[in-house]
């Protein structure tokens, strides 16, 4: 199969590329930028004048809900939604039922993802069996079937010695550990950022220290064990400051934030809408500004959707009885373009944080657009707009952005040169 | 980006009248004063030999209590009965939810029985908002206490008590003492006092029992009882739950009483004509000395009496506001 995309603005920050040129694809790979290679004949062409072509987005956290939570989503439905958001590669967290702590579960996910063929899926395995923090999962066996990193989600380790050993074991084999830093006890029973909004609403608070105390411990143990670490879903100004300090010390740690944390604050909770119930919680304006600055500076090198689809019933109760999470992957690109609209980042930097940045953080292929790389890309129209929810592919309708008019519109998503979404 | 549903006045109808009573947040002073004036007129009903007015005749009021309560539920029942409504009281903590029914389904079932009004108490903050917004917007919803968030009829009955004993709010100093953090009564009182123009609202508690950012209510914070009580006109004591000793919020009931308990001696620091209030049930010897609870300054039992009148006022106002809204919506639909 040969294929040419004509006249798009090609933007790939990792490759230093930002020019309007033709892109030539053969057998799922980019074979030419600008001039077609000698002997290349395009079987078909796509006129992409006026569109931006970027490396396909790489999303470090998309809950696919399969196996185990088919009411909330399936591998087919959620990877399809991801393709609509411009995503070509994604990582799925280990909180499935059964937990992703055995090669069998990883293989099942990978098989179904291949069958669905909407996105490349890279599972994150459980660091401990059942995510219980007691006994290590078979990390090497999981790596061998395709797990790219290991984490324990928000599930705490009951003791620091086990955590320390888990990190040392992972370090032995050069594995990457993903941390969600939230101290169990400081966050216990909490539903919202501990601050004036939660106090006013009478919602039990989760203090900023729930993040920073856990983060401080995790950073020290990472330094001691020498494990490669990625810090996911940071929420606080102090938290990103600690990551910046660790990086300045030379610790090779990376970090991501949830896209919604860059947009929403805890003020959204007034009115008790369960759509804003997330864990870790939405924090203050000044936290949001610090997350934005850290993203701009590159301290935070990845934006992730932290997509958590839910069935309607999961959100249909008083705030404290609802399940946390936002269904967000489907809007990843248009929602991220609000950051461009706000003047926070230029387009190449934004696209870097959505593609090459996350790919580098977990050592994934993807995030590039150069001769020889896989033809994973997204073509979008910067001048058009997307009415969120007009079309909805995820099983989870739990998005507070539905109804909003967002900048930009995804026109085509391609994985290995094959169109996985067109809109 | 602002949420689409931000700051919609959920509890008011298109003409600015009450259609639900969920929280005192955002209610204008005139409306609060109207509630107090209406309650004043109902107090006279309670003093008559025949204690009934026909305002809610033919209407069905459902008391749905997901948390135990004696005083609040009983006074709501009496209020509805004195307005001639048919009243059903359900103690849901011991019935359907234990069979796994969700709040949504419980309320929908009651709505199907043609209830016109729900009085709801629930342990989750925001439960009344959820019911009014998501479950049955056509039924008037009265918040009988939701989690730590609000207890607006208690707030208003406290205001009625203060107004009847002090004449107004403009020159008053009011101290709220005790477990502010977990108290929906404290939150509703702070909002009401501020909205009604009280210039000096003080909260007195150790840091472990104060919500972060309590200053947003326009209050001054004291951690010393003697200092906080100086020259106040009104002392509102809060109930201290036994379970607060676990988890490190307080060392013991004894130490709390030593530091924050209201004794005759400490009450002497307040103005000579100060009144002492408590939402009940009181813990004698934990937050309040018996001599104070039963003494000349105490208006704790008056609060209970006024509670019926305030609830009559709120029930009748919300029922008429909800009916008016339904009529407007029907006309618009036609």
UniProtKB/TrEMBL annotation, chain A:
Residues 341-421 form the Amidohydrolase domain. It holds the Pfam family DHOase. Its EC number is 3.5.2.3. Residues 53-236 form the Dihydroorotase catalytic domain. It comes from the Bacteria. One of its GO terms (molecular function) is dihydroorotase activity. Keywords: Hydrolase, Pyrimidine biosynthesis, Zinc. It is an enzyme of class 3 (hydrolase). This is Dihydroorotase.
From TrEMBL, chain B:
Catalyzes the condensation of carbamoyl phosphate and aspartate to form carbamoyl aspartate and inorganic phosphate, the committed step in the de novo pyrimidine nucleotide biosynthesis pathway. InterPro entries: Asp/Orn_carbamoyltranf_P-bd, Asp/Orn_carbamoylTrfase, Asp/Orn_carbamoylTrfase_sf, Asp_carbamoyltransf, Asp_carbamoyltransf_Asp/Orn-bd. Keywords: Pyrimidine biosynthesis, Transferase. Residues 171-317 form the Aspartate/ornithine carbamoyltransferase Asp/Orn-binding domain. It is an enzyme of class 2 (transferase). This is Aspartate carbamoyltransferase. GO terms for molecular function: aspartate carbamoyltransferase activity. It catalyses: carbamoyl phosphate + L-aspartate = N-carbamoyl-L-aspartate + phosphate + H(+). Heterododecamer (2C3:3R2) of six catalytic PyrB chains organized as two trimers (C3), and six regulatory PyrI chains organized as three dimers (R2). Carbamoyl phosphate binds at residues 71-72, 121, 151, 154, 280-281. The gene is pyrB. Residues 19-163 form the Aspartate/ornithine carbamoyltransferase carbamoyl-P binding domain. Pathway: Pyrimidine metabolism; UMP biosynthesis via de novo pathway; (S)-dihydroorotate from bicarbonate: step 2/3. The keyword Transferase applies. L-aspartate binds at residues 99, 184, 239. It holds the Pfam family OTCace. Transmembrane segments: none annotated. Belongs to the aspartate/ornithine carbamoyltransferase superfamily. ATCase family. Its EC number is 2.1.3.2.
């Amino acid at each position: 199969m040969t294929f040419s995309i004509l006249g798009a603005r090609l933007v790939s920050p990792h490759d230093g590329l930002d020019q309007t040129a033709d892109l030539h694809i053969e057998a799922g790979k980019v074979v030419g930028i600008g001039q077609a290679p000698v002997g290349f004949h395009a079987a078909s062409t796509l006129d992409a004048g006026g569109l931006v072509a970027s490396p396909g987005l790489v999303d470090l956290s998309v809950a696919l809900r399969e196996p185990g939570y088919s009411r909330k989503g399936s591998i087919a439905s959620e990877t399809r939604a991801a393709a609509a958001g411009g995503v070509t590669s994604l990582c799925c967290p280990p909180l499935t039922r059964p937990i992703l702590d055995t090669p069998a579960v990883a293989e099942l996910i990978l098989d179904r993802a291949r069958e669905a063929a909407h996105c490349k899926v890279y599972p994150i395995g459980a660091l401990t069996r059942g995510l219980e923090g007691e006994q290590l999962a078979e990390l090497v066996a999981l790596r061998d079937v395709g797990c790219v990193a290991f984490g324990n989600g928000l599930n705490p380790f009951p003791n620091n010695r086990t955590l320390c050993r888990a990190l040392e074991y992972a370090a032995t084999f050069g594995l990457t550990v993903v941390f969600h830093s939230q101290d169990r006890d400081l966050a216990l029973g909490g539903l919202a950022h501990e601050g004036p909004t939660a106090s006013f609403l009478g919602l039990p608070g989760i203090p900023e220290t729930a993040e920073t105390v856990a983060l401080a411990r995790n950073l020290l143990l990472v330094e001691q064990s020498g494990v490669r670490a990625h810090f996911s879903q940071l929420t606080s100004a102090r938290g990103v400051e600690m990551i910046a300090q660790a990086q300045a010390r030379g610790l090779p740690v990376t970090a991501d934030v949830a896209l919604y944390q860059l947009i929403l604050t805890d003020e959204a909770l007034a009115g008790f809408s369960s759509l804003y119930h997330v864990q870790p919680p939405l924090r203050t304006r000044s936290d949001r500004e610090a997350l934005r600055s850290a993203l701009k500076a590159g301290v935070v090198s990845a934006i992730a959707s932290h997509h958590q689809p839910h069935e309607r019933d999961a959100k249909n109760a008083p705030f404290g009885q609802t399940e946390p999470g936002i269904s967000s992957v489907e809007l990843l690109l248009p929602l991220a373009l609000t950051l461009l609209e706000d003047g926070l980042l230029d387009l190449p930097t934004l696209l870097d944080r959505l593609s090459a940045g996350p790919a580098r953080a977990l050592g994934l292929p993807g995030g590039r657009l150069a001769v020889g790389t896989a033809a994973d890309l997204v073509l979008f129209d910067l001048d058009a707009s997307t009415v969120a929810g007009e079309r909805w592919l995820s099983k989870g309708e739990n998005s507070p952005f539905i109804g909003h008019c967002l900048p930009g519109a995804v026109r085509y998503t391609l994985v290995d040169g094959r169109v996985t979404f067109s809109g | 980006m602002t949420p689409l549903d931000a700051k919609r006045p959920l509890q008011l109808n298109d003409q600015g009248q009450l259609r639900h009573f969920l929280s005192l947040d955002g209610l204008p002073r005139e409306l609060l004063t109207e509630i107090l004036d209406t309650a004043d007129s109902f107090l006279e009903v309670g003093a008559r030999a025949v204690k009934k007015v026909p305002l809610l005749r033919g209407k069905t009021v459902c008391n749905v209590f997901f948390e135990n309560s004696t005083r609040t539920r009983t006074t709501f029942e009496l209020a509805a009965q004195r307005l001639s409504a048919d009243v059903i009281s359900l103690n849901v903590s011991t019935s359907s939810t234990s069979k796994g029914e969700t709040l949504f389904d419980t309320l929908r079932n009651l709505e199907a029985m043609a209830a016109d009004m729900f009085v709801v108490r629930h342990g989750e903050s925001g439960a009344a908002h959820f019911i009014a917004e998501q479950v049955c917007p056509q039924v008037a919803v009265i918040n009988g206490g939701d989690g730590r968030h609000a207890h607006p009829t208690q707030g208003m009955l406290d205001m009625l008590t203060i107004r009847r004993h002090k004449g107004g709010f403009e020159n008053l100093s009011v101290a709220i003492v005790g477990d502010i953090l977990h108290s929906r009564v404290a939150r509703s009182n702070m909002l009401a006092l501020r909205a009604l123009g009280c210039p000096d609202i003080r909260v007195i508690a150790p840091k472990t029992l104060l919500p972060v950012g309590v200053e947003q209510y326009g209050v001054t914070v004291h951690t010393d009882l003697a200092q906080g009580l100086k020259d106040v006109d009104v002392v509102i004591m809060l109930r201290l739950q036994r379970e607060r000793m676990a988890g490190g919020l307080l060392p013991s009931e004894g130490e709390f009483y030593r530091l924050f308990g209201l004794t005759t001696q400490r009450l002497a620091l307040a103005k000579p004509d100060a009144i002492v209030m408590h939402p009940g049930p009181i813990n004698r010897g934990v937050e309040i000395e018996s001599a104070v609870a039963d003494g000349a300054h105490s208006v704790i039992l008056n609060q209970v009496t006024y509670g019926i009148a305030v609830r009559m006022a709120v029930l009748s106002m919300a029922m008429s506001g909800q009916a008016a809204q339904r009529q407007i919506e029907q006309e618009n639909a036609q």
